[in-house]
């Protein structure tokens, strides 16, 4: 049984990395100033932020059904089964579309879509774990079931530098954004399961960083990993645009988790367009392997 692993570009895995890993990455589409783009195909991270920060109109969308089935069909020419790990169903309709398509007769017992309700660095770890499970000889259904059993064992906190992009996306009102700007409020958002929700507010990025660290530690101890040294947990940082800020934060996170290797990756562009540049995220998920 040859099992292929498929994901989308929200995982942060580039097309080049996908080739090295032997997996398949479905590029997420964007409309920018009425032009169509695909992440990591004809839209790089630098190009995206250049357009976003120069007031371009940026809209996210989901891959067309035909594009998804084209991936399924091409992969099944060489593999017996596909495990597809898309972004959370609570953040995009792309997961529901893939699940609906996988139920068509031609994909029965061949395509398994994992709604692990993750995105970015936590989604990436689902992909890495799926790769290892496939190497162990697990079937597509077995990999799907293992990932689904572990799906709630993850947490993400995100702090944004400005309310402007949340205002554009309709998540805060113009009046609230204006007041928040005057008061220099730094909202902290969270993804616990399906959706991106407001968690807490503070006045400085310094305090926001510490709140994220404390919150992740609390989540780990309460529900992700009850071991004394948190050794069954992976710790990750994600960021938008500002890598230097992220690397500075990484040192602070490393001090809080001295026995962990900290991953530091760019945040998914599908999230970045709603929260803007200079945002930081801290995430954790339970180890499967």
Rg result:
19 Å
Distance between the termini: 21 Å
Mean pLDDT: 91
Give the topology string: H per helix, E per strand: EHEEEHEHEHEHHEHHEEHEHEHE
In total, how many domains does the architecture comprise? 2
CATH architecture grouping of the largest domain: 2-Layer Sandwich
How does the helix and strand content classify structurally? alpha/beta
- Main beta sheet, described? 6 strands, mixed
Number of strands: 13
- The best one-word shape is globular
Q: Which ranges are low-confidence, i.e. pLDDT below 50, for 5 or more consecutive residues?
A: 175-179
Percent helix among the residues? 40-55%
- Biggest sheet, spatial arrangement of strands: 10-9-8-13-11-12
Number of helices: 11
Strand content: 15-25%
CATH class of the largest domain: Alpha Beta
- Say what the CATH topology of the largest domain is: Hypothetical Protein Tm841, Chain: A,domain 3
Task: Give me the secondary-structure topology.
Elements: E1 3-8, H1 15-21, E2 24-26, E3 29-32, E4 35-38, H2 45-52, E5 58-60, H3 65-76, E6 81-85, H4 94-102, E7 111-113, H5 120-135, H6 140-149, E8 154-159, H7 164-168, H8 174-183, E9 186-191, E10 196-202, H9 205-224, E11 233-239, H10 243-256, E12 263-266, H11 269-275, E13 280-286
Parallel strand pairs: 1-2, 1-6, 6-7, 11-12
Antiparallel strand pairs: 3-4, 3-5, 8-9, 8-13, 9-10, 11-13
Helix pairs in contact: 5-6
